[in-house]
Amino acid sequence: MNMLSLEKELENNTYPGRGIVIGKSEDGKTAVTAYFIMGRSSNSRNRVFVEEGEGIRTQAFDPSKLEDPSLIIYAPVRVLGHQTIVTNGDQTDTIYDGLKEGLTFEQSLRSREFEPDAPNYTPRISGLMEIKDGKFDYSMSILKSNHGNPESCNRYTFSYENPAAGEGRFIHTYMHDGNPLPSFEGEPKLVEIQGDIDTFANKVWNSLNEENKVSLFVRFIDIATGNYETRIINKNHESEE
């Protein structure tokens, strides 16, 4: 598999939807994750990321304009001990509760499927980072309809043990813009992880389509200590300035 430029993947796609990147920094010392959301409707664009505990939550930028919160208000990131969960929906809570009960990442998601937003049937994409005793592994999952058929749910889990420095995986909800929106296909893309947290965050944010991007979360976790740094960029906050 060829290593792709994350920036070019984003620049060449006006609407990848929501996306998760997980990997390891160039120096091999840091676990890296990014999660972004985009929107085509005013309801989807009326959002910001806010910190909540060790994770984040989406909330309405202008509560008076919130139309349907069911699929847009959720906690994309939660932390359970040495595990960091990143998803594009309320399955974050499903995974969190499952792990607490002793289920695996994959088992926790057995109770969930793609989103009920016909005709798109948006895939649920999820990631789990495990950092313990100086070791870093991660997994990614996608739950998607069977080529747009809501009668069947296709479940894929990908696990990456001791990932290589400077490498990451990128999964997103849609292949590109369309109507209906075509679901992501194949395994998570192999992408370069470059720069410190600010360089990386700015590259991702600046590569997302200007009209459709909404918010970005980036976290760098020290593999040796578990300490982390976080960056949040919200387009709605930018527009106030």
General description of the model:
Helix content is 17%, strand content 40%. It has 241 residues and is an alpha+beta fold. It has one domain (6-240): Glutamine Phosphoribosylpyrophosphate, subunit 1, domain 1 (4-Layer Sandwich), CATH 3.60.20. The radius of gyration is 17 Å and the shape is globular. The relative contact order is 0.23.
**Which regions are unreliable across 5 or more consecutive residues at pLDDT < 50?**
none
Helix content: 10-25%
CATH topology: Glutamine Phosphoribosylpyrophosphate, subunit 1, domain 1
Largest sheet: 6 strands, antiparallel
Short summary of the structure?
The protein is built from six helices and 13 strands. It has 241 residues and is of the alpha+beta class. Strand 5 (77-80) and strand 6 form a beta hairpin.
Name the descriptors.
six-stranded antiparallel β-sheet, globular, 241 residues, five-stranded antiparallel β-sheet, alpha+beta, Glutamine Phosphoribosylpyrophosphate, subunit 1, domain 1, 13 strands
What's the topology here?
Blueprint: H1 6-11, E1 19-24, E2 30-38, H2 42-45, E3 47-52, E4 55-60, E5 77-80, E6 83-87, H3 91-100, H4 105-108, E7 124-132, E8 135-146, E9 149-161, E10 167-172, E11 189-192, H5 197-207, E12 213-222, E13 228-234, H6 235-240
